[in-house]
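Subject: design request, 300 residues
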């Protein structure tokens, strides 16, 4: 089947200890990690405990063969990490194992390339799990799930998503049946009704003030590259005169990098001026909740 035909889906499963592979700590960390490797955006992602004691499993759906191969090749280079790549045609939804690196971690497989027992990855179990939580039409699970993209039916809500790390914004959706209201708390401490879905956002940008008026784009980029993987930056100019205002904004690949930039750059000297740096108020959408949750554990 030709690459980029749009008729195949891929599921990447990465297993290992989060102590040696930090991207296995939570789905957000894994999704941020995989974004740096592939060209297109990843689809549904999840991180859950593995059947292998003390390890985690990260699952992520991918659309293109090139992206699937790039992600597989990248994670197989990580120390002590098991990687399994599955493929399916969207016409049947039944995932099959394409390849894995079991033999690199279990050299005594006696000619076999995959060990379901030792890796904790069973092909049948993968299809049952996906059918149960993603609405993938497998022989065991044939109930169709209406969604805007293939894996949107699984709410990506995890214990680490505290009000301090995410802000919730209400997304109006058509209600087809009465539901109990579900509430969470926004970053400002206000209650938010999440019964009809919500977007998860986080601040990945910084605001820099008191820059030297001689600073140019290359000067700003050189400064930002010292603290993280910058994906966008802009010098702010006066709307009337077009002159540089001594301020700038920048966005990083992750919230952690943005916070690191604030800690490192704030109140430091740059081109004879003491600059002031804080997190920007603009936020980036990092996930979506399409089913009601009770975030505080109460019955409200």
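Subject: RE: design request

Done. Sequence follows.
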């Amino acid at each position: 089947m030709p690459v980029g035909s749009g008729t195949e889906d891929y599921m990447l499963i990465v297993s290992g200890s989060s102590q040696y592979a930090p991207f296995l700590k939570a789905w957000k960390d894994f999704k941020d990690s995989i974004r740096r490797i592939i060209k297109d955006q990843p689809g549904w992602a999840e991180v859950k405990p593995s059947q292998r004691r003390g390890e985690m499993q990260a699952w992520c759906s991918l659309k293109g063969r090139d992206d699937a191969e790039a992600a597989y090749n990248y994670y197989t280079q990580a120390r002590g990490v098991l990687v399994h790549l599955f493929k399916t045609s969207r016409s049947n939804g039944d995932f099959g194992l394409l390849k894995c690196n079991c033999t690199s971690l279990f050299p005594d497989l006696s000619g076999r390339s995959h060990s379901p027992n030792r890796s904790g990855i069973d092909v049948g179990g993968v299809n049952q799990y996906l059918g149960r939580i993603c609405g993938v039409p497998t022989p065991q699970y044939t109930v169709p799930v209406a969604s805007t993209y293939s894996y949107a039916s699984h709410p990506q809500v995890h214990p680490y998503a505290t009000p301090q790390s995410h802000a919730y914004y209400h997304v109006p959706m058509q209600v087809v049946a009465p539901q109990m209201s579900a509430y969470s708390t926004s970053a400002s401490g206000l209650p938010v009704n999440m019964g009809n879905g919500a977007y998860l956002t986080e601040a990945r940008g910084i605001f820099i003030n008191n820059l030297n008026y001689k600073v140019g784009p290359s000067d700003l980029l050189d400064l930002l590259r010292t603290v993280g993987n910058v994906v966008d930056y802009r010098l702010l100019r006066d709307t009337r005169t077009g002159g540089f205002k001594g301020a700038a904004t920048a966005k990083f690949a992750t919230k952690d990098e943005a916070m690191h930039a604030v800690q490192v750059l704030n109140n430091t000297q740059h081109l004879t001026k003491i600059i002031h740096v804080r997190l920007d108020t603009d936020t980036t959408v990092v996930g979506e909740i399409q089913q009601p949750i009770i975030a505080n554990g109460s019955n409200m």
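The chain has three domains: 8-134, 167-202+285-289, 205-282.
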